[in-house]
Structures are given as C-alpha cells and as structure tokens.
Amino acid sequence: MQSATNSELAQRFPDLHPALDARAAAVEANRCLNCFDAPCMGACPAHIDVPRFIAMIASDNVAGSAKTILDANVLGASCARACPVEALCEGACVLHGKRERPVEIGRLQRFAMETFYDAGGRLALRRREERSERVACIGAGPASLACAAELRQQGFQVCVIDRRALPGGLNTYGVAEYKLRAADSLREVEMVRGLGVQFEIRDVDATALEEIECASDAVFLGLGLGAMRRLDVEGAESVGERMIDALEFIAAYKTGTPMRVGPRVIVTGAGNTAMDAARAAKRLGAERVTVLYRRQREEIPAFDFEYERALGEGVEFVWATQPTAIAQRGDGIALTCVAVAQDATGKLTQIADSEFTIECDAAISAIGQSPLLELLSQVRGVAMERGRVAINRATGQTANPKYFAGGDCVNGGREVVDAVADGKRAALGIAAWLSKTRAEEDASDNAGIPRSAQDKTGMRGAMRG
After folding, report:
1. In terms of residue numbers, what domain contains 319?
2. Which residue, of 332, 365, 398, is where some domain finishes?
3. What CATH number did the domain enclosing 457 receive?
4. Which of the four pLDDT bands, split at 50, 70 and 90, describes residue 449?
5. Which residue from 399, 432, 396 is spatially nearest to 143, judged by alpha carbons?
C-alpha cells in the first residue's frame, strides 16, 4: 500500500461527526434547556461549563464560548472530536428523559473552538509574576500539555520532553483519523507553545531522567502507556511484519504512510482501539476484517456505539475464541484458534476438540498497552500500584514529593479528557507545592538558617532522592 495523500485520507476517513455551520449551531444551541444542575457539566471530567458555552453560541458570542471552554480544558478542540460524548456529557443530557435527541454538545464545542481558531484566536497569557522555578513534563500527550499550559499561566518555566518528532501523544498518533486529525492536534500544541512552553525531542532513559531531575524543581510524569501487548502464542515471532501493533498501524496511516495489510485482516481484542483499527483496515482496502475476542459480546471493553459503528462498516466478530498459535502459510498467515467457555467466576477454559484455523494476510494486535515499568522503576521514591503510578488523587503528587503524575500512566488508559483533567489537577498541585517550598525557604533565609540545613523533605532534598 503506497503513501496516502491528505486528500486521500480525508476521503477514506471522513469526519465521524461533520462540523456544524453557524446557522445549524445556533439552532442546536437553542435546544439546550440551560439546566440549573447541569448534569452534562458533572459528566465532563474537565467540568466545562456546558450551559454557559452553549448559551454564548445561541447569543452569537462564539469567542466567549470558546474562552469558556478553554478556561476548563486547554485541549477543548481535540476533546470535542475525540471524546466519547455519548458516554459523557451527551449521555447525561436531560432530553434523554423526555425521549428526545440529546443536545449535540460535542459538535457545538467543536464549532466554538474551530470558529475561534479560524478567526485567529489565541489563548491569552494571564497577567502574573514570572517564576524562576523550572518544571519538566515527561511525555507530550494531553496530560502533559494540560499541565504545562496551566503552569505557564501561573508563571512557571516549563519544558515538555518527548521522544517522538511530533508532540501531542495519542491525539497526534493514536486517535482514529475520522475522530481527530493530526493537524488539529498539532494546532493545539502550537497554542500551548505560544504560552511560552518549551518542547524538547529526547529519549528518556535512566540517565536522562537523572539529568532532568537535577535541572528541574518539579517533574510531571505524563508518559502514557507503552506498546500494545503482543500475542503470546506459539510462532508469534515468526511472522514478522504481518503481526502489527494496533497503535503503530493507526499512527502510520495518520502520518501518511499506511501499512500494507492485504485483503484479509484479523484483529485480536475488542476494546475501542481494536474497533478503530478494524474500521481503519476496512477503509484502507481490506475486503474482510474479523475481530476475535475471547469472551462474549456483552463483555467487550469497547463502548457499545463503537461496536455498532464497526458492525455497520462490515467488520465481522467471532466470540469466545482464543488464538493459540500463528504461522506463515503461503503468502499469508494462519491463526490456530480454540473455542473457550466461561464459568460463573469469569474464568476461561479451552473447549476440547474445538481447534480451527483462520487464514489472513495480517493480524493486528489490540489487546491492551503495557505499562512503562522499566522506566518508571528508575524514578526514585515513586511507588507503583498494579502497574500504575500511585498518586495523591487531590494533587497528583507521588510518594517522591518532587514528582507528580497523571494520564494513562496513572489511570491505566482512559479518555483524552481524563488525561487533561489529570494534568491540570497536577499543575495546581505542583504550583501549590513549589509556592509552599519557596515560602519555607524565604522564611529560613530571613531567620538566618543556612540553606544546607533546611529540611531534607523540601525541594532540594527531593532532588537528591
């Protein structure tokens, strides 16, 4: 499969929810009941004031609407497109109780944000004191971007560090094109850069981590998760490039170099990423795409609406099936599978004499991402719980007071808006901790206490680990 141009990608991956024009947006905004208790706002992890921003659209104050969104969510444009609004704000709309169509909050948010950006709108820097303290945000995904933006708004010096050429994390590389285009993600990155946030491309290993720690007054871990788990079956290493990581598959076509998959594709796993990969394979020319899942339809991790969309695009599903081996066969590969049964406790057992083979040209693995345990284990004093960074949920602070964390490395892989909320919460925690530390140092200086004798639990003590 040759490289796809932007126009070809646009044709293959048209917007899931097409943009509203000004007239349609005004009509939709006037459907909002402006509820006093605003359940839609409570259902938004970023707590955007939904009735307020919609009322501003209705009164033709689109710039004010966008600024209301940005006050709560600096990645408001990305979230408008990538959020599963059916399960969040729109799912909580009171019109459901009236058996009416919910207000299209996501599309209204997108209208406000894109109108604002198209008119040259920028996020204004708040008037505040410039602070000398430096904060490093490791990872350039939504959590780090939200953290960095809020810290700059409070005057801190911030650098976002990531190994990939383009910032944005999964917004740029991992969210399906029909939900969020890479260009839209990068536009928001530039807005954050415009606040004075620095960006650095760098691999972060144990040595780099120590250097970053020594050069920073606080560190935010917004690493996300690692690569997709590979199928742990016999022969998995023998099929080479025909075994594909779902996130790498999505990233490749989003950056204009889609992978060759052939006419028959198998996707293992049934989460939202599996649905995106399956639909992408269909749109990139696969004639038959089959999703294999070891449990029944009722237990898939994907949202129901994601499953229904995949089904509507011709994706096939095989339930209660587990691959046991994979091998090269002619020009393609063959997956040996068995049927599985599930008992009352949820335990799965293979059914005897149920073995069968499915032939395909490529197998896409979407069975969950692995945590970056090797790197995280190098962070001195940061505790882990079930493969996730343990934090104070109110502040984002870890057991090492100099380190804060948020996003997928903490929550295990949720939505973009959850990462944004984590990042902003951690930024407030970092600002409070650094301000407290500075106040304590100033008090010590005024009392004539040498800095070398200051409490080792403070910032400088934390830097030494």
Report:
1. 236-365
2. 365
3. 3.50.50.60
4. low
5. 396
Please answer whether residues 78 and 88 qualify as being in contact, where contact means their C-beta atoms are separated by less than 8 angstroms: no
Q: Output the CA torsion 349→355→361→364 (10° steps).
A: 0
Q: Which of 398, 417, 399, 392 is nearest to 407 (CA)?
A: 417
Residue 454 confidence (pLDDT): 47
Residue 268's DSSP bridge partners are 292, 365
Q: Is 74 exposed, middle or buried, given 0-12, 13-18 or 19+ CB atoms closer than 10 A? A: buried
Nearest to 311 by CA among 321, 323, 302, 324: 302
Number of domains in the chain: 3
As a whole number of angstroms, the distance between CA 345 and CA 450 comes to: 62
Same domain, 361 and 374: no
On the question of pLDDT at 288 being above 60, the answer is yes
Q: What tokens were used for 209?
A: 């981590």
Is residue 129 in some structural domain?
no
Same domain, yes or no, for 201 and 302?
A: no
Measured from the Cβ of residue 10, the count of other Cβ atoms closer than 10 Å reads 14
- Residue in the structure block whose two tokens are 């259902």: 43
Average the pLDDT over 384-413 and give the result. Answer: 94
Looking at the domain assignment, is residue 325 inside a domain?
Answer: yes
Are residues 50 and 70 located together in one domain of the fold?
Answer: yes
Residue 304's identity, in one-letter code, is D
Bridge partners (DSSP) listed for residue 339: 321
* Cα torsion angle, 430, 431, 432, 437, sign: positive
The last residue of a domain, from among 118, 150, 166: 118
DSSP secondary-structure letter at 163?
S
The mean pLDDT value for 95-121 works out to 96
Least confident segment among 70-84, 156-170, 329-343, 376-390: 376-390
| 263 lies in the same domain as 332 | yes
